[in-house]
Amino acid sequence: MGRAPCCDKKGLKKGPWTPEEDKLLVDYIQANGHGSWRLLPKLAGLNRCGKSCRLRWTNYLRPDIKRGPFTAEEQKSIVQLHGIVGNKWSMIAAQLPGRTDNEIKNYWNTHLKKQLRRMGLDEPPLGPAAGCPAARHMAQWETARLEAEKRLSMLSSSGAAATTLTAAAAAGPLPPVDATKDAVKQEAALPGDDSSAASNEVEPADAVDEYQMFLDFAGEELGLFHGRHGGFSLFPPIDVLAESSLDTAF
DNA sequence: AAAAACTGCAACCGCTCCTGT
DNA sequence: AACAGGAGCGGTTGCAGTTTT
Prior knowledge:
Elements: H1 19-32, H2 40-44, H3 50-61, H4 72-85, H5 89-94, H6 101-118, H7 133-157, H8 165-171, H9 181-188, H10 195-198, H11 204-228, H12 238-249
Helix pairs in contact: 7-11, 8-12, 11-12
The protein binds a DNA duplex through helix 3, helix 6 and helix 9.
């Protein structure tokens, strides 16, 4: 598939960003939004490729980026999420508001990996295939959550719902649909799963019911998880989650 | 004090996926 | 259905700063 042309073929600048370049980028995005990343450098007066601009913005210049060291809670979340989804840094980042995937990736590679090794723990097995029963439960939970989100997002995009899941995510740390697309695809590809095809015509009321079922399921699963892991929480308590998500989304 | 080794982070590269035609 | 362009993601690299010898 068409690969983005390499920057150096066009004589574009690479390497560290100067404060002047940062300012140009920030000023432009604040005034116009990023729009097409490919066109942005030209419009903003930058001698950079769009890719470089996007990276600089998402990893460094975005105003909502949280700076400073990771908290113990964030560390715990990263370790747990990594055990569940593996190196899906964007998915992990979606659970940690203000943190970027690049930052989390770096933190994992430089700090947490070593820390786990020092503690005598090998790197945990990656992905939903992880052998630990709790991880399997979480993987099932994640699958169900993604399915519910997928349906909800279809609803939203068709205009049937007043707000999007992103709004719900703002109320609680459910990730935006974008961040979960890999898993959604996996889910959609499951043999014998005809729900994704049928979901195109899902009725609003059905979606609400399904989302509620998902929340109920998640509640049970999380209860189990809490019980086994001494109160660790990836997500807010389920009653809060249910209340805020449903209230905001509907 | 100087050199070597190590560490952490910003940025780049190349691949895959998504979307429009 | 096939193709092309654009966006996003994960892996890797380069280098400045810090620590150790």
